[in-house]
Amino acid sequence: MQPPETATQQMAEASLETPVGTLCVGEQDGAIVRLTWQAAPTGASGSALTAEALAQLRAYFAHELTAFDLPLAVAGSDFQRAVCAAMSAIPLGETRTYGDIAKELGAAAQPVGNACGANPIPVIIPCHRVLGASGLGGFSGAGGVETKVALLRHEGAAGLLI
């Protein structure tokens, strides 16, 4: 007897070195599902989509790309997906506060901050562009707030940091 077929494929992964460390993108079922600060596992195989994601990340860090154009699939609640959509709408070089996004979504700032921290696809979904009302706020990527500052400086955002 053969196991039943599933719609889910094994995750394709690929990584590259960037100014903020090694980034690894993961693709499943035709969409980018995660970005982490690590090298792709030994023996991992990429895909055409992970190759495109790496090309767009290279272009972003070379100041040649202002908006990512990749199919994304955010795991989580409807609220998590709504926060990720709100973050994705923040243009390069601009920032919003947790409160701004909370007001837009009719929610409180704390759950927005939690959803930002749970963003599975940082950089591509720019959670680094979301700041606290009176400071930087946090950043869940490797290097924490220092990486957030580096990304904001790279984008020319938050002039007070430059």
Automatic annotation (TrEMBL):
Where would I find the Methylated-DNA-[protein]-cysteine S-methyltransferase DNA binding domain in this sequence? 78-157
Q: Where is the Methylguanine DNA methyltransferase ribonuclease-like domain?
A: 13-73
What GO MF annotations does this protein's record show?
methylated-DNA-[protein]-cysteine S-methyltransferase activity
Q: Gene3D superfamilies, from UniProt?
A: Methylated DNA-protein cysteine methyltransferase domain, Winged helix-like DNA-binding domain superfamily/Winged helix DNA-binding domain
Any one biological process term the GO annotation gives? methylation
**What reaction does this enzyme carry out catalytically?**
a 6-O-methyl-2'-deoxyguanosine in DNA + L-cysteinyl-[protein] = S-methyl-L-cysteinyl-[protein] + a 2'-deoxyguanosine in DNA; a 4-O-methyl-thymidine in DNA + L-cysteinyl-[protein] = a thymidine in DNA + S-methyl-L-cysteinyl-[protein]
Q: Which PROSITE patterns match?
A: MGMT (PS00374)
Q: Return the InterPro entries for the record.
A: MethylDNA_cys_MeTrfase_AS, MethylDNA_cys_MeTrfase_DNA-bd, MethylDNA_cys_MeTrfase_DNAb, MethylG_MeTrfase_N, MGMT_N_sf, WH-like_DNA-bd_sf
Methyltransferase as UniProt keyword: yes
Q: What is its EC number?
A: 2.1.1.63
Residues annotated as transmembrane: none
Q: Which UniProt keywords apply?
A: DNA damage, DNA repair, Methyltransferase, Transferase
The cross-references to PANTHER family, in alphabetical order and at most eight, read:
METHYLATED-DNA--PROTEIN-CYSTEINE METHYLTRANSFERASE
State the family named in the UniProt similarity comment for this chain: Belongs to the MGMT family.
Q: What is this protein called?
A: methylated-DNA--[protein]-cysteine S-methyltransferase
**Organism from which the protein derives:** Phaeobacter porticola
Taxonomy of the source species:
Bacteria, Pseudomonadati, Pseudomonadota, Alphaproteobacteria, Rhodobacterales
